[in-house]
Design brief:
Blueprint lengths: L5 H27 L8 H22 L9 H20 L6 H13 L6 H30 L2 H25 L4 H38 L11 H18 L2 E9 L2 H8 L1 H18 L5 E4 L4 E7 L3 H16 L3 E3 L2 E3 L3 E9 L4 H17 L4 E5 L9 H4 L7 E4 L2
Parallel strand pairs: 6-7
Antiparallel strand pairs: 1-3, 1-6, 2-3, 4-5, 7-8
Helix pairs in contact: 1-2, 2-3, 3-4, 3-5, 4-5, 5-6, 6-7, 9-10, 10-11
Length: 402
């Protein structure tokens, strides 16, 4: 150990910081090709690169004995702490305090031109503590909201700064040991940086895994459930319906002339139409209802503890709301209408039976001309419109025209 000089320790330390930064950049490269956005990724990248440059400046000052008219490492420490706050607050989805802390960062950085080294060290220490504390609060709030343990690691970095920096200040003001205070601050910053890097990478990895898991049950275009997610979401409610002989209803929805819309106006408008319908379904459904996109232009809305009449009334509201809001492209109004099938069961028939009956009713609505609601019921046929009478429906079905 005696053969390792201070210069060697500095090189080893710089190598470790460089390796951590490279690991972060590798993660950034991998995530850059992902369709899943990572909040705060850009600012965290700036933070890690800025810290690397700050350590380079500190190494040159301590080892290479390069004269600096301005205390660059102190300014770098202030700026890096502020960038960490910006990155943490952006990742937490908050913009509170940015202007106030930005002014504080500017004022603290400008002090380098007016204060001697020891007083500048005190300013740097206090400013970094404030910025890290605010960043730690943002990380803690996000960790509690998202249940992400990686954010708690970043919070620990702020807690470390909150403990270590006052000790460094006491070492300077109380014991008059400037070099000892610098050593404590150096160690605290180093460990805090490692914790921030570890916390961010862990947070991103956990969140990425959670998002991949949700994609297995979620439609990426509408953020609705897919068929697999629908089955998982309905397991408990269908078991309860079977046990207590409760009614359940379903509405199968198909967008009329969707293929023609895609051919005439392009797939971008088609995606907009799908998202519009998904928004209406979410807007009109209740908290216990389950909405899923089951095909290209097909949706299934399952209504626990709802009878056929209640489902038909909801289907009519959905149909009317979509029909009265046409899409507009190049000053042209593109009408959007729905063919909807309603089915209901009581007890333990199951999701497959319910969706098959709703699909039969939806097919009837499309054959009758679209923009209407049809239903499959275990009772004699009742036709409610003349348009429906022009084409006889299947046994046990009823249609409701626009």
């Amino acid at each position: 150990m005696d053969l390792i000089t201070t210069r060697d320790w500095t090189i080893i330390f710089f190598g470790l910081i460089f390796m951590i930064t490279c690991a972060h950049m590798l993660v950034v490269y991998v995530l850059s090709g992902s369709s899943i956005p990572t909040p705060g990724l850009g600012l965290y990248t700036v933070y890690f690169m800025a810290v690397l440059l700050g350590w380079i400046a500190y190494t040159l000052k301590q080892v290479a004995d390069i004269p600096m008219t301005v205390d660059v490492p102190s300014v770098a420490a202030i700026l890096n702490a502020f960038i960490f706050f910006l990155a943490a607050s952006e990742r937490a989805g908050s913009s509170a305090g940015r202007i106030v802390l930005g002014v504080l960062c500017t004022a603290a950085s400008l002090c380098v031109f007016f204060l001697p080294a020891q007083q500048m060290f005190m300013v740097q220490t206090l400013a970094a503590t404030v910025f890290f504390t605010c960043a730690g609060i943002a990380c803690l709030r996000r960790g509690l909201l998202k249940g992400n343990s990686g954010d708690y690691i970043s919070t620990c970095a702020a807690l470390l700064m909150l403990i270590g920096m006052p000790i460094a200040l006491y070492q300077l003001a109380g014991a008059g040991d400037y070099q000892g205070a610098q050593a404590i601050a150096f160690g605290t910053h180093s460990i805090a940086f490692v914790l921030v890097a570890t916390g961010f990478l862990a947070s991103v990895a956990i969140e990425y895994q959670q998002q991949l898991s949700s994609l297995a049950t979620q439609d990426p275009l509408t953020r609705l459930l897919n068929r697999r997610g629908l089955e998982q979401a309905l397991q408990l409610s269908l078991v309860q319906a079977a046990r207590q002989q409760l009614p359940s209803a379903a509405i199968m929805i198909d967008i009329d002339q969707f293929g023609e819309i895609n051919r005439s106006f392009g797939p971008e408008l088609g995606d907009r139409v799908i998202r519009r319908v998904a928004e209406v379904l979410q807007q009109l459904s209740r908290g216990g209802d389950v909405v899923a996109r089951t095909g290209g232009d097909e949706f299934l809305l399952v209504l626990p503890q709802t009878n056929a009449e209640g489902a038909r009334m909801l289907a009519e509201r959905i149909r009317e709301l979509v029909a009265e809001r046409p899409m507009v492209i190049a000053n042209n109004r593109v009408p959007v209408t729905l063919s909807m099938g309603v089915a209901s069961i009581v007890g333990a028939e199951g999701l497959d039976k319910l969706s098959q009956d709703a699909d039969r009713a939806m097919a009837l609505a499309k054959r009758a001309g679209g923009n209407r609601v049809a239903s499959v019921e275990n009772r004699p046929v009742h036709l409610t419109t003349q348009a429906a009478q022009a084409r006889p429906p299947q046994a046990g079905a009823a249609t409701h025209d626009a």
